[in-house]
Predict the structure of LacI family transcriptional regulator.
Amino acid sequence: MATIYDIAKRAGVSPATVSRVLNSYPDVSPKTRAKVQRVIQDLDYQPSSLARGLATKRSMTIGAFVKEGPNDGLRHPLLSDVLATFQDVAGEKGYDILFFSLNEANPQPDKYEAIARYRHVDGLLVLGLPRTDPAVIALSTCGIPCISIDLDLIGPRAGYVMSDNVGGAMQAVEFLVRHGHRAIAFIGDQFATKPGHDRLIGFQRAIQAFHLPFRPEWVQEGDFTDASGYQAMQRLFELPDIPTAVFCASDLMAIGAMRAIQERGLNVGADISVIGFDDIRWASMVTPALTTIRQRKDELGRQAAYALLRMMEEPSALPPVITVPTELVVRDTVGVCQVKSWPG
C-alpha cells in the first residue's frame, strides 16, 4: 500500500507538500499540484481519515444524534433514505458518521454536547429528536457546527434543513377540494414535532382559504405510526358526521387509516379519500396505491451534508435555514366526492 513518502519520492517533492495537496491547501503551485495528483492517481493512493485528521487537526467524524425506536431513525422508511444520502456526500469528503446511542436515563441538559466533545467530532447531525428537549436546545449554542433535519435548531453555529411542510399540506387539501371534498379531516402530530405542527398549519390555512368548514373533532392526533393512523380513523368513525376525505401528515398514518376504512367495508378513494405525506417506498405498494405529498429525500440529505461541510470547513459561514420543495404524487386513494350513508 502506497504512502505519502512513496508519492513524495516519485513526484520529487517533500512529504509535507504531498500532505498539503491532499488537504487542498492553496499555497501549492498548479504545476506541482498537478504532478502530485498524477502520482496519487497512478499509485491509487487512498488517504485514511486518521491520516487526514492528523494533518488537519480534525477527527474527520460527524456525530449523529438520531431518535431511536421501531419506526424512527435508521428504521424509518423515509429517514433511512435521508441518512443514506447524507452519509454518501460526507463520505466523499472523507468523513465518517458516528451514530450516538442516546441515554434517556441521563437528565443532564448538556448530555449531548458532552458526548460530542468526548468523541471530538467535527460536526453534528440532529434528526428526529424532540424540539423541547433542553439537551437538544443546548446543541444550538455549544459552538460545534450543527445541522438538523426536520427540527428548527438555530444558533451561532447551528442551522437546519426542512421540507416545505406548510406548502405541501396546502397542496394536499387543494387536491382534495378539486375532487369536490369539503368535509376534510386531519390526522397528525400537532405539537411535538416541527413537521407535524407545520403540516397542521398548512391544513388550517387551506381550510380557511377555500372557506371550508373547520370542525375541531376532525383534527385527530397521531404520532406518525400506522397504528396511530388506524386509531385516529376509528375515532373519526365514531363521530355523527364523518368526513369524506382525510389528510394524514405521514404515509404510515395514512396506511393505518386506510386499513380502518377497509375494515368498515368501505373503499378507499371511492367512499373516503386519503392522502398522505412523505412518499415512502410502501406508498406505491399498498392497495390502493397511496396519493401523497413527496418529500425529496435525497435533496434533504444532500443539502444537510453540504451545509454542515461548509460550516465545518469555513468558520465564517453563516448557519443555513433551507427549505426543500415538495411535490404531489397522484395515485389511487383520492376520488371524486360522493356523499352517501355509511354502514355502521
Summary: The longest strand covers residues 61-66. The chain has two domains: 61-163+297-324, 165-295.
